[in-house]
Design brief:
about 270 residues; two-stranded antiparallel ribbon; TIM Barrel; binds indole-3-glycerol phosphate; globular; alpha/beta; 13 helices
Length: about 270
C-alpha cells in the first residue's frame, strides 16, 4: 500500500466517526455564521507570481517541520508580508493539522483560505465551509472522474473554490477541464515522495489560458520561482520553506521581493537599450 492509500484509509475511518458525532445539519447551521466566501481564482491572477502560503506543522515525509505553531500569529504574518492566500492543513494523523487551525486562521485574516486535506466525501466539503474555508483541495489521484465532478459541483454550490491537483499528464487527460478554474500540479509524487520542481511547467503547458496554474511542493528558491513564472505559472504553493524559517512572514517577503526584482530586471535592461 502506498502512503497515499494509507492516508486515504485513515481519513475514511476518521470520517465515519465524525459523521456519527457531528450531523451535517449542525455543520450547515455553523456555515450560516460564516461570511460569504472569497473567490480564490481572482486572488491568484494578480499579474505577478502569487503565493499561497501554507500552515504545515508536520508531514509524513519530513516529520515535525515546525514546533512553535501559533496559527493566528502565523496567519497574520503571511497576510502582512504579502501572501495572496493561505493553505491550512487540516489532516491530523500525518500532518498534525486540524479544523481548529482553519477556524483560527479564519478569525484572524480576510485572505482566501484553502482547506488542505484528503477530500473523499461531500461531508468534508460542508465541513470546510462550516470552519471558514474559501476553497478546498481536490486530489485527482484519490477520486474517480464522477466523484471529482460531484465534489466539485458540491463545493461550487456552497460558494467554495476548488484547487484541483494532479501529478501527471495522464491524470490531467482524465479531467474534464470545462468546469475547472484552478489547476495545481503537485511536484511531489504522493506515492513515492519524490520531488521534481519542473513538473508543473511540463504538465500545465497545454491547459487553456483561462485556467489558473499553480505549482505545488518542494519550492524554496527565487531561481525556481522566476523559472516557473517565465513559463506561465500563476501561483506557487509553499509550506516547508516558510515553516522552517524563524519568521515565516519575513521569509515569504524576502522571496517575493527577490522574485519581483529578478522578473523586472530584464524589462529595465530592454528599456535602456
Ligand atoms: O511544504 P512544501 O514542500 O512547500 O509543499 C506544500 C504543499 O504543496 C504540500 O503540502 C501539498 C501539496 N499537495 C498536497 C496534498 C496533500 C498534502 C500536502 C500537499
Amino acid at each position: 500500500m502506498t502512503i497515499l492509500e494509507q492516508i486515504a484509509r485513515t481519513v475514511r475511518e476518521r470520517l465515519e466517526e465524525r459523521k456519527r458525532r457531528v450531523p451535517v445539519s449542525l455543520l450547515e447551521e455553523r456555515s450560516h455564521y460564516q461570511s460569504p466566501t472569497l473567490p480564490l481564482a481572482p486572488a491568484l491572477r494578480t499579474g505577478e507570481l502569487a503565493i499561497i502560503a501554507e500552515l504545515k506543522k508536520a508531514s509524513p515525509s519530513k516529520g515535525i517541520i515546525r514546533r512553535e505553531f501559533n496559527v493566528p500569529e502565523l496567519a497574520r504574518q503571511y497576510k502582512w508580508h504579502g501572501a495572496q492566500a493561505i493553505s491550512v492543513l487540516t489532516e491530523p494523523d500525518y500532518f498534525q493539522g486540524s479544523l481548529e487551525h482553519l477556524e483560527a486562521a479564519r478569525r484572524t485574516v480576510d485572505l482566501p483560505l484553502l482547506r488542505k486535506d484528503f477530500i473523499l466525501d461531500p461531508y468534508q466539503i460542508v465541513e470546510a465551509r462550516a470552519y471558514g474555508a474559501d476553497a478546498v483541495l481536490l486530489i485527482a489521484a484519490l477520486l474517480d472522474p464522477v466523484q471529482l465532478h460531484e465534489l466539485h459541483a458540491m463545493a461550487t454550490e456552497l460558494g467554495l473554490s476548488c484547487l484541483v491537483e494532479v501529478h501527471s499528464e495522464s491524470e490531467l487527460d482524465r479531467l474534464d477541464l470545462d468546469k475547472i478554474e484552478i489547476l495545481g500540479v503537485n511536484n511531489r509524487d504522493l506515492h513515492t515522495f519524490e520531488v521534481d520542481v519542473n513538473r508543473a511547467v511540463q504538465v500545465l503547458r497545454h491547459v487553456p489560458e483561462r485556467i489558473v496554474r499553480v505549482a505545488e511542493s518542494g519550492l524554496r528558491t527565487a531561481d525556481e520561482l522566476v523559472h516557473l513564472r517565465r513559463h506561465g505559472i500563476d501561483a506557487v504553493l509553499i509550506g516547508e520553506a516558510f515553516m522552517r524559517a524563524p519568521h515565516p512572514g519575513e521569509a515569504l517577503e524576502r522571496l517575493r521581493r527577490e522574485v519581483q526584482r529578478r522578473l523586472a530586471a530584464p524589462d529595465m535592461l530592454r528599456m535602456a537599450v
